[in-house]
Amino acid sequence: MRNKFSIGQLSKLHNIPVKTLRYYDEIDLFKPIYINEETGYRYYSSEQFKQLDIIHYLKTLGVPLKEIKQQLQSRNIIELQESLKKHHETVETKINELTRIKKRLEGRIKEIDASLKVTNIGAPTVLKISERTVVQLQEKIGSIHELELALRKLKNEFGVLSPIFLGKVGFTRTISQVKHYDFKEYNSIFLLLEDVEEQDLLQKMSNVFPEGHYVSIFYRGVRSEASSYYKVLLNFIKENNYEIKGEFIERAIVDQFLSNDEEAFLTEIQVQVSLGE
To answer: In the prediction, which pLDDT does 164 show?
Structure first.
């Protein structure tokens, strides 16, 4: 049959599944030029190849089939231009979101890699740390149940945030709690904001951990073992005549949700101090 191609032939020529071509026919987007009444076989003409190329091109740009169909029917260049502009904006939004996700993944990979290389376990050190932006929820947390509720509340209260990334959630304890060895509960829960746009969006709702010197200690093990390391920090601060300037910050970098090996767990405890003269 001259200049006529079966649906199977067209599928192979254009690398489009037969199922897709049948669907295009069903929705009146791309119909065969001839259907054999006896066999029901569909046949297409080479003159339709350009139309199929246009459909494929617009589809790869993200244009919905409904709009492609409308464009093929109207062939209005202004409508096509507006449709492409709209989908260009959609693509830009997706690219920006993927770029943010990529940065977070890179940061998390870097942090996990660093956690595997930590050797100064249980030894306090003094670090100069830049200002960090957080959203913080003042909430007493004394159990896993209360912890999970606080996490959901934090996420819901600051709904513009992207999904919470493991490892960026932390807790605080007051100076009084630590000095009185009261480790039954945390004073607040916080989420570190890594994304500059999120920091801008939440500027009025966010808090900061100020730039300064922090005494830090890492330990491997479960959360219930933290109290002994707080005591080590307190002794270190007292021996060096440092002055505590803020709440104690505790963050599990690797925990049971990331590893089933307790020896790989890693938690950091920090507190800002004044080094004095």
So the answer is: 47
Q: How far apart are CA 212 and CA 218, in angstroms?
A: 19
Task: Give yes or no for residue 85 having a pLDDT over 50.
Answer: yes
Burial degree of 213 (CB within 10 A; 0-12, 13-18, 19+): middle
**Pairwise CA distance, residues 192 & 64, whole Å:** 38
Domains and their CATH numbers in the chain? 4-75 (1.10.1660.10), 120-274 (3.20.80.10)
Contact 27, 69 (CB under 8 A): yes
Would the pLDDT of 202 be above 60? no
Phi and psi at 192, nearest 5°, equal: -70, 130
Rg (CA), the chain: 30
Q: How many angstroms separate the Cα of 265 from the Cα of each of 105, 178, 215?
A: 19, 22, 20
d(Cα 144, Cα 16) in Å, to the nearest integer?
52
- For the purposes of burial, counting CB atoms within 10 Å of the CB of 257, is it exposed (0-12), middle (13-18) or buried (19 or more)? exposed
- Residues constituting the chain: 277
What span, in angstroms and rounded, lies between the C-alpha atoms of 94 and 159? 19
The DSSP symbol for 213 reads: E
Rounded average pLDDT over 49-62:
89
57 CB burial (10 A radius; 0-12, 13-18, 19+):
exposed
Helix (H) or strand (E) holding 139: strand 132-141
Amino acid at 3: N
228: which 2 tokens? 């002994």
